[in-house]
Each structure stands twice: as structure tokens, then as C-alpha cells.
Amino acid sequence: MFTQGALALVLGFSVGSVSAASFDCSKASGFAESEICRDGYLSGVDEVLNRTYTKAISASSNPEGLRQTQRQWLVVRNQCQDQTCLDRALGNRIQALEGIIRDEQIKARQAQDERAAAQRYADDAERERQKAVLAQQQRKSAQPLQRTPSQTASNVPAVHANGANTQQANPVTTWFINGPGWKYTLVLGFLLSAWAVVRHHRGSATIYSDYTDALITNLLPALGIVIAGICRWLEMPGMVSTISVIAGFVLSISYAVYSTVKNNRGALSIFLTIMAKLTLISVFYAVIGLLIASLFSSTRRKGESQARADSRNRRERKATMAMIAALSAAYSALTVWICRNPKFTSVGECLEFNRVPELP
């Protein structure tokens, strides 16, 4: 009996010694270490803490700082004088170490994302450089054969001694494109449009006779753009897409002129109505086109990381899409407001030219 009891006692001490994995129980000192070695539950918690600490050291970018905080925590743990205090201290330290591991993993993922974004940016820059080199080579290969001096003198415009071409650009075109000409034209278009709207609501002119009239006029350009996008997706030649867009706007302008002449009397009413339609349609599609084009461009500010730039570009794209939706809704509401009859009619009735305009 004595022999069996002694054997069980020895095995119990051996198991307790093996359970405390973070230190040697044969050298335990103080209440905290002695209690961890004695109590199986605390020994298991201490072993979990030791594994978590080892994983945190491996993941930490500052292992020496983590070792210092572990030494400071051991001082706090050794002040415990009961099992409740030890259990709480071990549990809190495990949670703190797990938080450190999570933070280091997040930092590692962010660094990896930034490296991947930087690599993508470098790859894009390299592709653009290769395209530029290829385009330059194509331009060189497309240049005509070298001409004789007499041919050059007869066909090339004269050049001043300072290298400037004697042929000057059209001053009217320069004033309109590079100067304030387009602004004056835009202001004049809006003033004429406002005048046309006033005459429309007084009953002396008709901008849109009904919803069908407005729908045909405003959707023809959009239809041309959609067809161009489909042609682009089908990898047709670029000229086909360009022709589709131009055809949509030409048909819209043609129908606008046709419906204006059909529904109005007098040269002034016809002129003001056509100007109003062309101004509204051109400004709307120009603004929407610029906004849509901005959705496909990405910018990176000076000193900004690629990941932060991507996040900012995503937010700006969402704001741009919201602006496109708001402008489209406002333009639709304006178009409905300037319709003479709040109803839809058949397309055949809109194309009927001999109908008498509905004016007082």
C-alpha cells in the first residue's frame, strides 16, 4: 500500500512539472509559480500563454520591446496571492498577446497590399513607356521618303530665321478655343434658351410638344453612344464607334429642327426653340461625358501611398456616379417641365409634318 501511494505521488508531481511549460517547476519560487505548478488548470493556461507569447515574438516587428513588456508583466503576475488573481492575470496577458498578433498581421497585409499596388503602378508605367516607344517608332517608319531640296522648298511653308512658321492660325478659331469665345457662346446660348422657355410658357412657342417629342430628341445621342460601346466591345474598328456617336447627334439635331419647324410659327420662335434645344442637349451631354471620362482616370497625389490613392479614387468615383444620377434626374425634370402636353403620343404622330401646331 505504501509503495502504490508513493508511486502515485511521484507521478502526480511529474505531470504537474510537465504541465507548466513556460518555466521549470523544479525551480519554482514564490506563490505564483508554485501555484501554477500545483494547479492543473493554471498550468494549462500558462502553457497557452507560452505558445501565444512565442507566436507574438515571431510576428512582432519589435521583439525586444515585447520581451521587455513580458518581463514587466511577470512582475505584476508575481504579486498575486490567490488563484483568482493568477487566473485574471494570465487571461489578460493572453488577450493582450493575441491583440499584438492581430495588429502585426494587419500591418503585414497592409504592407503587402502597398507593395502589390506599387508593383502594379510600376508595371503600368513600364507599359506606357513601351507604348510611347512603339508609337515613336511607328511615326518614324511612317514618315515619307526624304524629298529633294527643290521639292522641300516648293511644298514646305517658309520659316523665319528664329524657326517660327510664317503661317498663323486662324485668329477667330484661336479666340474661340483658347480664348473666351466659347464662354461667350455658352452665355448667349443660355440667354436665348431662357427667352425660348419664357415664350414657350406664354404660348407663343413650343420647345417640346409632348413627352414622346422630348424623348426622341434627347435619347438619340444616347442611343448612338450605346451602339458605339457595343461596337467597341465587339472589337470593331474605331471608325465604326465614331460614326455611331456622330450619327446619334446628327439624327438628334435633325429631328430637333424638324419638330421645331413643325410645331412653331414664325422665324423668331423657330430660331429660339432650336437654340434652346441645341444648348440644353449639348451642355448636358458634354458635362455627363466629362464625368463619365473621370470615372476611368486614377490620380496619385505627391507623397500619397498607392493604397491610399486607390481608396480616395474609389470614393471620388462613387461621388461622381451620384452626381451623374442627380444631373440626369434634374435634366429629365426640366425636360418634362417644358413639354407642352404632359402625355406620350405615338412616334408616327410626332413624325406627322402636316399637323397644325397647337398654339393659341
Task: Give the helix/strand layout.
Elements lengths: L1 H18 L10 H9 L1 H20 L3 H15 L5 H60 L6 H7 L15 H7 L3 H22 L5 E3 H23 L4 H26 L3 H29 L10 H32 L1 E3 L5 H4 L10
Parallel strand pairs: 1-2
Explain this structure to me?
- This protein has helices spanning 2-19, 30-38, 40-59, 63-77, 83-142, 149-155, 171-177, 181-202, 211-233, 238-263, 267-295, 306-337, 347-350; strands spanning 208-210, 339-341.
- With 360 residues, it is an all-alpha fold.
- It contains 13 helices and 2 strands; from the N terminus they run H-H-H-H-H-H-H-H-E-H-H-H-H-E-H.
- The longest helix is centred in the first third of the chain and has 60 residues, at 83-142.
- 76% of the residues lie in helices and 2% in strands.
- The chain is elongated.
- It has 2 domains: 13-112, no CATH class; 181-297 and 309-350, no CATH class.
- Residues 1-21 and 150-166 have low confidence and may be disordered.
- It starts with a helix and ends in a 10-residue tail after the last helix.
